[in-house]
Amino acid sequence: MQQVRESDLPPVRAPDVVRRRSEDLVGRKDRSERLRVAVLAPPWFAVPPRRYGGTEAVVSLLVDGLVRRRHEVTLFASGDSRTEASLVSTFAESRSDDLGLTQPELLHALTCVHDAHAFDVVSDHTGALGLALSNLTSTPFVNTVHGTLAGEAGTLYRRVCEVTPGAALVSLTESHRSSARDLPWTATIPNAIALDDHPCRASRGGEYLFWLGRMSADKGPVTAIEVARASGMPMLLAGKVRGAAEQAYFEEEVEPLLGGGIEYVGEIDPEERVRLLHGARALVNPLAWDEPFGLVMVEAMACGVPVIATPRGSVPEIVVDGVTGWIAASVEDMAAAVERCTEIDPRQCRAVAERHYSPERMVGDYVDAFHRVIERAGRAIPLLGRTPF
Amino acid sequence: MQQVRESDLPPVRAPDVVRRRSEDLVGRKDRSERLRVAVLAPPWFAVPPRRYGGTEAVVSLLVDGLVRRRHEVTLFASGDSRTEASLVSTFAESRSDDLGLTQPELLHALTCVHDAHAFDVVSDHTGALGLALSNLTSTPFVNTVHGTLAGEAGTLYRRVCEVTPGAALVSLTESHRSSARDLPWTATIPNAIALDDHPCRASRGGEYLFWLGRMSADKGPVTAIEVARASGMPMLLAGKVRGAAEQAYFEEEVEPLLGGGIEYVGEIDPEERVRLLHGARALVNPLAWDEPFGLVMVEAMACGVPVIATPRGSVPEIVVDGVTGWIAASVEDMAAAVERCTEIDPRQCRAVAERHYSPERMVGDYVDAFHRVIERAGRAIPLLGRTPF
Fold first, then answer.
1. Cβ of B7 and A162 within 8 Å?
2. Could you tell me which residue, A238 or B25, shows the higher pLDDT?
3. Which of B127, B156, B184 sits opposite A107 (nearest CB)?
4. How far apart (Å, rounded) are the C-alpha atoms in residues A11 and B111?
């Protein structure tokens, strides 16, 4: 494995790197009971995100959950993040304007790689670039694939894995994994949501249908509107319109269909999302692509709101047909499902969410994966006792 | 050093990777006389570029010059490239719409890294990402820095060099190198131009001033117009307006100054560039930043056209004051220099261009650098004789 070179140059650090120790780590002595975990978030949004940023929301739950289990956790994320872990920031502010660009992503990831020797494991959420750079350290990486593996992304992961002997990937669902079975998977770990922030409603019903997502054909807003029309229900659509392609799609395909009880309410914050979920007959999620996960479906479930979704990607694993909602392929079948939504018991939805999508379950799964890759890497595990939870 | 892992997975190749062997390599037997050189171009533009793409133009001259010296050369570039070398393409078409994005850049660079074991040296023109990935192979890399090292780019190079023991960088000018003296430089190799495509004019004079560049404040189009007004000369401005920021700059700062003999002619192709240079009194290049190189100044020089430029970045190394043009800091001094342009002998300009900026000189410098890093890497050099030129 590569070592950081012993250079004759003075050590150089990015001038804007800020190291902040959370108070609760000061005074800890017995590190043998804990894993030292570096969590590498993407640099594009704060952890947790202000509005948009599913990956950053999940990373936030993971980091704070690991801290609560008394692991020693350092989060590598932008300086506007809030965390119970130590925070190391390459950038004072998240770089959403530079989304996807090599320069900030590489600089951010190298900050973590440079420090990786101080950790037992790196939980990497930056995608293929982090995986490629994992070759630069002997500390094992657990790389969570948050995006689709269709098309070029899958090709890229295969290419990176060819040159990364210790690659250990986490998929979000079995569907996600099955789209690229040949990759070196170590676990399937479904995302979690902050259950406390998504309380369950008491009553069934609701006077409108709800759609939430990015404004792209993949997410099926037009089909959702067709379902509303076919079932004679009003509909609220929410979500950000990002970039020129989504703007064009919205103006050409969605906007002409608005009116007559079909309303677009724009981007909404998490509190508003819960409020609109609580008032909805159902969340309509007519995906036109194989989404690797679907946080919004889990949020609806936690809130006690039925989900009506097409059988694409993760849907058959997340929606329990007839219990937490309905899986239906056509507009007609989805409209028929709207009629039957009052059969869905909010308490059953909540129970499924609590059983499968709690942060505790997710954090436990990650700790198991960390131990597995640490053992495989042949490193001494400094965890002599058991984690408290 | 990392080795490509011996995986139990079947070898996977990006489905769109195309391998094309140039005919002139077929039948070669005595490879011991040649270096096996991989040249890794950026994936954003074809090699050579159709219009915009200074790096790709230089890479094209390097690749074809190495082939003419009978080295065994493989160019890693988009499939719309034209070369005398072998061509390996990750993408059938150049990815200019994705300029700067990690996903295509990483996939493209890994194609080269994956094959690097088959070469004596990799001449890398992809910037910091290629340098970071060079750790994945034992084949030495010579990494040419084509961009500025001011600000975040310099920070990134320092960070990558920290984790890259064998880093060997090429700067374009001494000014370029001096902006980051602490980096592991192996050579300063000025760019070259295709001298045959830039014939020298016979006569002095010309009835307008000429400005050519990206439409940004860095390149000084407003100052150039002020020089034209102060000297009472018409001016032609040429160059592409790329992206929202340049569009806004053009509309707010430049467009209001047009008229009265000051004309913007848009983006022009190489032939039109030469034609407009031949008719110009001088190229006015009032840089407001430390440009690492300035191809357009060398092109003017080759065409026998004086260059009037501010003493920033590479200018004092490229412009021979009083011989190939004038170095002047203020609008007044530049306007005074316009008066003296007829003192500049086109043949002297041409002689300087031929001496310092020929492809032969550049290719020779690169071959020297390749030998140096190959020797340092402790590898057997398969070149038993001398290269023919």
1. yes
2. A238
3. B156
4. 32
- Residue closest to A73 by CA, chosen among A1, A115, A122: A122
Q: Specify the DSSP element, H or E, that contains B66.
A: helix B54-68
Amino acid identity at B284: V
Chain A contact for B151 (CB, 8 A cutoff): no
Least confident stretch, A18-22, A40-44, A158-162, A326-330: A18-22
Residues of A in contact with B165 (CB under 8 A): 2-3, 5
Rounded Cα distance between B291 and B217, Å, is 13
Partner residue opposite A101 with nearest CB, options B102, B110, B160: B102
Q: In what order do the strands lie in the sheet containing A169-171?
A: A18-20, A86-89, A72-76, A36-40, A121-124, A141-144, A169-171, A185-188
Cross-chain residue pair B103–A156, CB shorter than 8 Å:
yes
Distance from CA of A158 to the nearest CA of B (A): 7
Of A34, A17, A156, A152, the closest CA to residue A85 belongs to A34
Compute how many other C-beta atoms are within 10 angstroms of the C-beta atom of residue A264.
19
What's the pLDDT band for B279 if we cut at 50, 70, 90?
Answer: very high
* Alpha carbons B362 and A325: distance in angstroms, whole number: 68
> Cβ–Cβ of B103/A107 closer than 8 Å?
no
Q: How far is B134 from chain A (nearest CA, A)?
A: 10
* B192 vs B130: CA distance, rounded Å: 22
pLDDT of A32 over the 70 cut: no
Tokens standing for B18? 């195309």
Out of A197-201, B22-26, B213-217, which region has the weakest mean confidence (pLDDT)? Answer: B22-26
Peptide bond into A10 cis (omega under 30): no
pLDDT digits (tens, 9 = 90+) for B32-68: 458 999 999 999 999 999 877 899 999 999 999 999 9
**Rounded to a whole number, what is the distance in Å from the CA of B72 to chain A's nearest CA?**
25
Residues in chain A: 389
C-alpha torsion sign, points B87, B91, B93, B94: negative
Q: What is residue B194's three-state secondary structure?
A: coil
User: Do B128 and A114 make contact, defined as CB atoms within 8 angstroms?
Assistant: no
> Does A221 have pLDDT greater than 90?
yes
Please list every residue in chain A whose beta carbon sits closer than 8 Å to the beta carbon of residue B156: 103, 106-107, 110
Q: What is the pLDDT of residue B53?
A: 86
* Chain centroid to CA B72: 22
**Average pLDDT across chain A, whole number:** 89
**Portion 171-200 of A in contact with B at CB < 8 A:** 182, 184
ipTM of the complex: 0.85
The pLDDT assigned to B33 comes to: 59
